[in-house]
Amino acid sequence: MSADGAGTPQQAATHELERRDLQIIAGMIDEGSRALDIGCGDGALLDYLVHRKKVDGRGIELSQAGVNSCVAHGLSVIQGDADTDLAYYPDDAFDYVVLTRTLQATRNPRDVVSHLVRIGRHAVVSFTNFGHWRVRLNLLTQGRMPVVGDDGHTWHDTPNIHLCTIRDFSVLCDDLGLKVQRALSLSRHGAARELNSAGAIANIRGEEAIFLLTRE
Question: Which CATH number fits the domain that encloses residue 41?
Answer without folding.
Answer: 3.40.50.150
